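Justification of resources, computational component.

The compute hours requested in this renewal are based largely on the per-chain cost of generating structure records like the one below. Each record pairs the submitted sequence with a full structure-token output. That output is archived, and it is also reused by downstream analysis tasks.
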Amino acid sequence: MLVLAGGYMVAEILGGLLTNSLALLADAGHMFSDVAALGLSLFALWISERPPTSQRTFGYYRSEILAALINGAALIAVSVYIFVEAYGRLHHPPEVMGAAMMWIAVGGLAVNVLGLWILRAGYHENLNVRGAWLHVMTDALGSVGAIVAGGLIWSLGWNWVDPAISALIGLLVIYSAWRLVMESATVLMEGAPRGIDVDEIRETILTTPGVLGVHDLHVWTITSGLDSLSAHVVADEDTESRSDLLRRLRQAIHERFGIDHLTIQIEPADFDERPTLV
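The structure output for this chain reads:
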């Protein structure tokens, strides 16, 4: 799918330049987001295989997030360029080869439909694949817009439709890019993962038999699909086995929130964390 999207992105850029269609160029910019999303998925697979080092104890997982942030910023810049060009063309619409524009957009739609079919198998199992699938679906809507614009220009001579549709496609691009930037920033700022309520996790820990309290509870995302949790749990002195308590905590958090990367420190009630000065 990466090869298909990349190849047709180049075709749409050339087609947009040849037909003088900003809508095709805008759709090519949106297809670039598909290429970037698919490339990031492959890059994440490759980079995650590199082992951790003494300097990078979590390995290279965050490289995907950094790449996503750069990709989102670049897409926002592309969208701004599209809006500026569309504004100028709305005042002075140039001649556009509507028929050629429409057929090139039809080819783009065919590539997107094929991509949706290719990626459908991993939609529910893999977060990266789901994100790529959503990118392709949004781009398919952009291709439909370019087809409509080409048809109206070809049949009615409405050249103003080209910049109008391109502005709409630009909105789709900036919507996807903004979400990408915000999600990347949340991960880099080590915010709580989307869909996980930290207060619910705290309540789950506190209602586990043998637990008196919990503090220093942190939940964050290392990379897409890999969430982590650390906490200090105060145990009841009557708890017979700390290992059994730890096992119950891990099982409860895993079953309810799907978090597997856990670091839980079990402490007695009179434990003082302050270092002893000698």
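The two ends are 63 Å apart (CA to CA). Residues 198-267 form a domain with the Alpha-Beta Plaits fold (CATH 3.30.70.1350).
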